[in-house]
Amino acid sequence: MRVLVTRPAAQAAEWVAAMRSAGIDALSLPLMGIEPAGSTAELRAAWHGMAQRRLVMFVSPNAAQQFMLHRPAGSFWPAAVLAASPGPGTTRALVEAGVPAHRIVEPPADAPQFDSEALWAQLEGRDWQGADVLIVRGDGGRDGFADTLRAHGATVAYLQAYRRVAPSFDAAAAALLAAARAQPLRHLWFFSSSEAVANLETAVVAVAACADPAEPAAAGWSRARALATHPRIADRALQLGFGLVAQARPTLAGVVACIQSMRP
Questions:
Q1: Domain 2-32+166-262: assigned CATH number
Q2: What's the Cα-to-Cα distance from 231 to each of 119, 188, 194, rounded to whole Å?
Q3: For residue range 174-208, what is the model confidence (pLDDT) as tens digits?
Q4: Is-contact 249 110, C-beta < 8 A?
Q5: Residue 2, phi-psi category: left (phi > 0), alpha (psi -120 to 50), beta (remainder)
Q6: Do residues 59 and 36 make contact, with C-beta atoms less than 8 angstroms apart?
Q7: Distance, CA of 124 to CA of 153 (rounded, Å)
Q8: Longest dimension (CA), the chain
Q9: Domain 35-164 is in which class?
Q10: What string of DSSP letters covers 15-69?
Q11: CA nearest 76: which of 114, 54, 103?
Q12: Rounded mean pLDDT for each run of 10 residues along the chain, 264 residues in total
């Protein structure tokens, strides 16, 4: 069984390498691209007012990496500011970029899910009245975390650090997609975002439009299998028509264990 890792290219490569080390046949098939935000001026400007903030929340590793990339020379993470991370990938990106580990708030390692709800459970006991909070993210996203903070008296602003784009399929990626569609039981789709599932549906339509009309049309998704790292992602895959969708905690150990349990 071959696992198709659909994360953005850089993160997909890391997961593929880790899975192969665990004896799993894995290939990268990114279903989302990451590009810098159109203007970097706001990213640079955000650093000048950092010391006045109580909390900066990063929605993903990409948010952390892009924000820290524009840190002014000679500046450091302010000692009184908390950095909030929804999971270990984002935390790792922050630490690698120089944020002190003791200033990072994240869900515990044994949390059932790594998401904003699990993060809020670590923050809700603090006083947020009058707090200045910045949420660093891509182009759009869910607003629940910000709404919760505002309900507790905080002032919340958003900062776009990157933008998500649809994948660009070269011949090799198109061939891999076709093989997965033709042999669904020999492939397992690994989804870590609902947007990747939506982009897969779009990609299938685009690839089919360019296919040789003499080639037999691929069947639907009813025999396809997927592994999702969150209930919302699993629901999106089921909506697309996947016949079997398993769920695993978004850790390497959890994902590997789930994959091994799904092997014939």
A1: 3.40.50.10090
A2: 16, 17, 10
A3: 899 999 999 999 999 999 999 999 999 888 876 55
A4: no
A5: beta
A6: no
A7: 12
A8: 65
A9: alpha beta
A10: HHHHHHHTT-EEEE--S-EEEE-S-SHHHHHHHHTGGG-SEEEESSHHHHHHHHH
A11: 103
A12: 94 94 96 86 89 96 92 90 96 95 95 92 96 93 92 96 88 92 95 93 68 51 94 95 93 92 78
- Note whether 86 and 64 are within 8 A (CB): no
Q: Which helix (H) or strand (E) holds 10?
A: helix 9-21
> Over the stretch 82-125, which tens digit does the pLDDT of each residue have?
999 999 999 999 999 999 999 999 999 988 889 999 999 999 99
Cα 40 to chain centroid distance, Å, stands at 22
* Sign of the alpha-carbon dihedral angle for 189, 58, 169, 193: positive
The CA distance from 4 to 12, in Å, is 9
- The one-letter amino acid at 233: I
Chain-centroid distance of CA 179 in Å reads 25
Residues 30, 7: contact at Cβ < 8 Å? yes
- SS3 state at 77: coil
pTM to 2 decimal places: 0.85
Domain with CATH 3.40.50.10090 in the chain: 2-32+166-262, 35-164
- Amino acid residing at 41: A
